Amino acid sequence: MKVSLEPLSTRLFADRRTHIIVAIWLVLAFAAPVWWKTTEVYRAPLPFERIRQCDTPEALSLKLEVDIHLRLSGSAAASLSHGDAARVTEQVQRGISQVFSEAAPQSAGSRRVVLAFSVDGAVDPKSWPSDATPSDIDASLGKEHGRNGAYDVFVDCSSQTESVYVGQNRALFLQLPSGCSKDLIVSRTIATLSGLFGSEQRSLSKLYAGRRSRDIDYKSMRTVKYAPQYQIVLSLLVGNPQDNIVTWDIEKAANAYIAPFLESLSNISDFTITSQILNFAQLPTVPDDQRQSDGSVEFTMRPKSLTSFINSAEWNLASVVSLAPPINLILYIPPASFSPLVLLHTDGSPLASNAFLVPQWGGIVVRSLPKNTPRVHYSVDALHHIMEIFVEQLRGLLGVEQTHIVNSAQLLSGVHVQYASSPELGLTRWEVDRLFRARTVLNIVDAAQTLTSLANLLEQLSGMVVPDHIQTLVARSLDSIEHAKLDLEQKRYSSATFYARDAITSAEAAFFDPAMVPLLYFPDEHKFAIYMPYFVPVTVPVIIAIIREVRLRFGGTLSRRLSKKKTA
Amino acid sequence: MIAPRAAAALALAAVLAVLALAPAPARAGSDLAHAAPATGLEPYRESLHVSQLPDGKVFALFSFDRTIRLGFPDGRHTTHYGLMPRSIGEVFQAFDVRELHLTFTQGRWDLDRWGHSPASAPSGVELWAWLNSTNVDAKWKGLTNALAGLFCASLNFIDQAVTTEPLLSFDPEGDISRKSGFQIRYGSLPREAVCTENLTPWAKLLPCQTKSGIADLLNAYRIFDGNFQSMGVHLTPKCATPDCSDTIFEFRQTFAVVLDNERINARRDWSFQTLFQRHIHTTCPFAASTTVHLHLNKLEHESVYILPTANAFSDTPTSIDRYFTVTQTPFFLDVHWEPENLNSRNPRLAPVKTHRYLSGVGQERGAIVVDFTNDLPTPMRATYFDSIPFILKMYLHTLRVVQRAGGNESTDASGIVRETFFQPAMDRLRPNVLELSLVLPPKSKTTISIDFDCTFLKYTEHHPDANHGFELGVGVLTLESNPFPPISDPESAAATPPDQPVRIYTESLLVRLPTPDFSMPYNVITLTCTLLALFFGSVFNMLTRGLRPVPIAGKSLLDRFRRSRKA
């Protein structure tokens, strides 16, 4: 049977086929954007460029300016010639700048923080009444004297011996021998200031170098991770209430000792104080017993076994309500079967305080009670010593560094150095200021780093949702970083502290936001697995059809091919 | 060994001395303020009620009562805790809880064999709380989440979709009134399995944990071997001043357990040792009083020997009540019956009962039927509360009430149902709530039924064991007056108000919804896609390929093959 096809009908068929294929491709072309749009994950645009910029070493190199106000007393002014008083200021300025420009690490390409000083001075005969001691003047200044980053140096030249007194209220007192020279005033001032701020510069540089530095000292390892809110939990743990029922007058004691201390730190974090009594608190380890020379038995624990002192499985220390990190301060009363319990140094000698600090967790004070004391009540007075230890432990945990003139033996040889203590607050203005400065710069850096990590994470995981409020938080954090840096430049430290806190809080809120997690667990592989069984068998003939169609139409003229076919 | 015990006794004496100064326990609230500075610790009492049920099982109810202060009249919260654990105190404060009742129960109280329960609780978890807040729903959500963390239970699954607000049932038990602006929230989890992981955090809240006092008997190996366990946490407010400007709270932990003494022991006799394998080895040093009350029902010819000697007793020919004040430790309790064999007679059947069951066939629709039986010669006023999750669509117009009394059947509901509250469900937002105020006629059986349609759920909403079905929470019948002789002792009666409502819980129900086959979702995707792809492919080929007849010459297949080879 001979088959003959009309050329027209073949042509019609070819055209129709082209239409069909084009129509299918048109549907695909229009459907693709719809599919793309409907399966898209919502990502609010984030200012990635701004985030990257604020985490560069240049952007994070900070300068903390400190104003030093020299106040020469009548006697000091008297021993100087008229022009010398102005020259003292100038020379102190030059000297101290030189010391700190050497101290600051100069490696380029890494962020750094430097202290810079500007010194001014005046002869102020009334500043130091002849019969006043440094501590009197210090006390008369009051707690609100000056501001963070501005300190007074009182110089007097009327005493027999040289002495330096670091006050509690942003003041420094130099007592020099009568008839002191300009050079002595200058050198002593420079030595004291550089000693006083040297340690701060060093620890700031060290902390600022961040994780890259292996040289992290024990002090900074002790400090709890910064949080804008902490819960201070005071717990009285009684080993066995069958031996002693113990109660404590904790509300009054906490208000008297711990609340003022925390109050002075309220600019960087909020604190809540709660207390509880936990009974039948068993130790997870058994202390060693040691027979004393008088035949009595003493129980001891060495630092090694203290690592398992905390029985976190049994002791009800956690809160289910608050997310603020807790700082636990524990007064532990061992059961009579383990009394007296003595904590030992590594060398085996007993610890005088019978207390220890658990880095980044809290502090523990152990107090053994005598036998046959069924009821014991710790009054506020009885708690005095324990509260002192708690405050000291809190200082360590919160990173308060003791005011200290480094190398005072060399810098100030033969000079009697004395530091004021602050019995009401537990920390001096010098310490508070220093902590605030350190916290501010660290918060700025941490906020910048958190934002960078968030940006990196979002760039790597394209399936992650970014809701609008994350964008707001990020913008707020960036604004706060900039405000904080501006305030630091303009020496508004308390405002800078506030903005730095806001920056880190917003940055962490954005980073840990639960709204971003869900789609993270829907990987691309799953999508392919679902699309493949349909789209692979469907698209292959469609693609082949279009290729054939293109070849047919443009590979040679259609008419020639058709006529070829006809002849065949 | 003598010295510490003497010290403990001394400690107890000291506690008793302090308590002696305090007025009667009913006024425990007002003396808290005075006692607190001296001791710093809240008043605490513990008591144990033991009775033998008609079928020989032993019922023990432990209660641990503390009077606590959560806040001050000036609005300040307590932040320094004594015997009250901080962990739970903070929960109450943070979520403005005024009254709270939480029970974890395993097993079902067998009304027919055990009579009415002094510690009635539905199986699973039940939580209801009165909250004092303007933002009640957020606080309730926080509360369920916090309690979930505290008790290692899935309380966080009590979400908006299962939370209800009962209007007639669950009146406040403390000194607050329904009208004072506080709001109630109720939720239950019938599926929750209760075990030691819930007991441990519960026991941690006790002042003496399980280390001394009556809690010493809570031996997890034995108590979870019983037929019924229910642990509860109850917080009820009490006025500290006559004008109620200052509120203190009664914080009560309870543990109710039914132990099958005969299965363990093969005898009717029992002792603490056989039941718990423990005894009370010391009293809790914080407890102002530790009391044990024993209640037994007996026949007149039976005699019971009980050790040790009770401090007080009130016996009748058919019942025995012994009261022990535990001062001497160790404390054992031994009960010996004469004759030894059990007469399973005169069970104190529950005169008011309720049962709930499903009717209908198939997985598409059905009906819930609830029976109420009143065997008393007097009518009984009660409220019935039932909360059915949105997975069932209930229709109020299908509510039918049938009453049978003395062989007569009537469908006239007017005398029985006084008020009806019905809240239709909204998908994923709120459950169906049916609340009825009933008068159950004397010697009658009332049956109500209501029809439902099953919904088709999203596949993520099914449980991991989808073919198990969904458990519905229990229905609650609250009797307005207590028709039963109270079996609590006079001392604990002071702590628990005698007019505490009696709740009777129905069974929980298991419904099966239309369930997809979860076993092979990917296979289903692949199969469907392959079919669609085949369909598309053939249609596409038909459209784009021309079909032409092919000339066939030659006759055999071989010829054709040869031709095609040549071509």
Walkthrough of the structure:
The complex is a heterodimer of chains A (568) and B (567). Chain A is of the alpha/beta class and 568 residues long. Chain A folds into 3 domains: 7-39 and 523-567, no CATH class; 67-214; 224-398, no CATH class. Chain A is 46% helix and 18% strand. Chain A is built from 16 helices and 16 strands. Chain A has helices spanning 7-38, 48-54, 74-78, 84-103, 134-141, 182-209, 218-222, 250-263, 303-306, 380-398, 408-411, 429-460, 468-489, 493-511, 524-554, 558-567; strands at residues 62-72, 113-123, 150-159, 163-166, 171-177, 229-238, 245-248, 270-279, 288-291, 297-301, 326-333, 341-343, 355-358, 362-366, 375-378, 416-419. Chain A has a 6-stranded mixed sheet with strand order 2-1-3-5-4-16, sandwiched between helices. A 5-stranded mixed sheet of chain A has the order 8-6-11-14-13, with helices on one face. In chain A, a hairpin with a 4-residue loop joins strand 4 and strand 5 (171-177). In chain A, helix 2 packs antiparallel against helix 12. The mean pLDDT of chain A is 84. Chain B has 567 residues and is of the alpha+beta class. Chain B has 3 domains: 2-338, no CATH class; 352-511, Immunoglobulin-like (Sandwich), CATH 2.60.40.740; 522-566, no CATH class. Chain B contains 12 helices and 26 strands. Chain B has helices spanning 2-21, 28-39, 86-94, 111-114, 136-151, 196-204, 220-223, 261-265, 272-276, 490-495, 521-544, 557-566; strands at residues 44-52, 58-68, 97-106, 124-131, 183-189, 228-239, 247-259, 270-271, 289-297, 303-307, 312-313, 319-325, 334-338, 352-359, 365-374, 380-388, 392-394, 400-405, 408-410, 417-423, 432-440, 444-454, 470-472, 476-479, 502-505, 509-511. A 10-stranded mixed sheet of chain B has the order 5-4-3-6-7-2-1-9-12-11. In chain B, strand 6 and strand 7 form a beta hairpin. Chain B is elongated and about 120 Å long. The model of chain B is unreliable at 1-38 and 486-498 (pLDDT under 50). Chains A and B meet through helix 1, strand 7, helix 8, strand 8 and helix 15 of A and helix 1, helix 3, helix 5 and helix 11 of B.
